Amino acid sequence: MALATDPSLRSSDVSHVLVLAPAELAAEARLAATAVGAVRPDLALNVDTSVRSVGALVSAVQAVPDIASSAAEVRETVRRRLLASISGAWLPSVTKLANPNPGMGLHIRSLVARGAGFIALRDDPAWVAQLPLKQQASHRISHLAEGDAVCFGELPEPAISALFGFGLTQRPTRVDSLPDVAGEWGSAEAVEFVLRAPVVSRPRLGTCAVCGDPVWERTCPFCHAGLRGAAPTTSSGALQ
């Protein structure tokens, strides 16, 4: 419950809190939000979970402007960035990779020869291949030529060549490695990357009837209230 004891939560300047977590940690995220609510019952809270990887979540959060006009804008920025992101990783072996499932053929190849390793994508759709990629194994990704990529650690050159084959036009930007890549990708030597196509924005639907923040959905994700001038409704949904 480290979040509930964060000193910044006691500041009167804090009015909204967004708790962002991978889908597998949804229960823990909601428990943390409950603890925060007990400390600051006046806070507007929202818990968002996503099936995307930890790297995609980190990359989406980093896309938030330093000065955002509202908590709702922060949440919308993260959501739109996640929709435009594809998670992947280079792995030396896929014997312990569970998501995506590499299949028996690649599993056996992983046991008998290391070679240049393997590349896996979680989205658009899930896909695993041995490196170096053959011509017929090219996996083009729509709009990636206008986007970029970030890698959490040092990607081997065969993996970078594969990203160019997907449509990337510039080398990925390297940032610090992520913790627990073994838990995420089945190998402590895995290097995660995130492919980022251009973000497609959507128009606001109005403002929250309670806090006045801009709203892109039928209800405010923090106050759970309807739009100003609209009939009350309920909120639903999670990050993609």
Can you tell me about this structure?
The protein is α+β, with helices and mostly antiparallel strands and 240 residues long. It has two domains: 2-83, no CATH class; 86-196, Hypothetical Protein Tm841, Chain: A,domain 3. It has six helices and ten strands. It has helices at residues 26-39, 54-62, 71-83, 103-112, 157-166, 181-185; strands at 16-22, 44-50, 85-91, 118-121, 127-130, 148-152, 173-175, 191-196, 206-207, 214-215. Helix 2 (54-62) packs across helix 3. The longest helix has 14 residues, at 26-39. The protein is elongated, with a radius of gyration of 20 Å. Residues 232-237 have low confidence and may be disordered.
What are the defining features of this structure?
240 residues; Hypothetical Protein Tm841, Chain: A,domain 3; two-stranded parallel ribbon; 10 strands
List the helices and strands and how they pair.
Layout: E1 16-22, H1 26-39, E2 44-50, H2 54-62, H3 71-83, E3 85-91, H4 103-112, E4 118-121, E5 127-130, E6 148-152, H5 157-166, E7 173-175, H6 181-185, E8 191-196, E9 206-207, E10 214-215
Parallel strand pairs: 1-2, 6-7
Antiparallel strand pairs: 3-4, 3-8, 4-5, 6-8, 9-10
Helix pairs in contact: 2-3
